[in-house]
Amino acid sequence: MSSRIRKIEPEDVESCGEIGYEAHKAVSTAHGYPSEQPSREFAIELIKRLVSNPNSWGILLEDNGKILGSIFLHRFPPSPVAVIGPLTVNPSSEGGVGAALLGAALDRAREQNQDQVRLVQSPSHMRSFALYTKIGFSLREPLFLMQGKPIGINPRSNGIRLVQDERDISACNDLCKSAHGFSREGELRQAAEQGLATMVERDGVIAGYAAGFGLFGHAIARTNDDLKSLISSATNIGGPGFFVPARNQILLAWLLQNKFRLAWPANLMTIGPYQEPRVPYLPSLAY
Hints:
Elements: E1 3-7, H1 13-31, H2 40-52, E2 56-63, E3 66-75, E4 81-84, E5 88-89, H3 97-111, E6 116-121, H4 126-135, E7 138-147, E8 160-162, H5 166-180, H6 185-193, E9 197-202, E10 205-211, E11 219-221, H7 224-232, E12 242-245, H8 249-257, E13 261-271, E14 281-282
Parallel strand pairs: 4-6
Antiparallel strand pairs: 1-2, 2-3, 3-4, 3-5, 6-13, 7-12, 7-13, 8-9, 9-10, 10-11, 11-14
């Protein structure tokens, strides 16, 4: 195969989006899951947003001018974690495309001195799981995407309020560091600016926070009851739902009792240092 890897340019957005849609459609159709990219328009818009994001770096592999696949590497400063995704390969392409793109993305992470790299993988896609495992990724957390409507309990009755000032940000960062070993301050600040970041306070102590609910939100709490309070008071769930670790049987059972449903499974996979969270948490699509 005569091929080259290069940066994704604005004129490549539509082609990369089309490939992403077709790739996800092929996997979801084969296994009976809803597609992570439900339409061509969604897939193209996703690539368009990532190409314009200064914290996202996208490359593609092409052969004689034909795009065969693409990958993105993301930073979330000041978090030390680099995130890969989406990695999409044209279903009609020969083998080796995904490995070449993934290798180039990991090289980029090393150049940026980022030794913690993470991704969320679809377990129904056995080829991608095998690729990630061979290249060094470890499965850390099986996940389920939960779909449902906001429960709509009055926030004041649960000790919930918006994240508002620097003291709130600092307290939430401390909680995140205790769980993960680092803060997700950049994402928390963005959610706070959008009015999506909430926190639960017990006797003057921050017991949990959520940077929105949806694929791009995350949450951390001291107990499942605190996490339930945050979920109960959510007024909006963005996109197709939010991820819950499969091992948290208490939270999953509670969500199912509140008319949420299991949409599709996923796997959180990592390379490099990893601190297993000892408190209830919700990951984002990134990590």
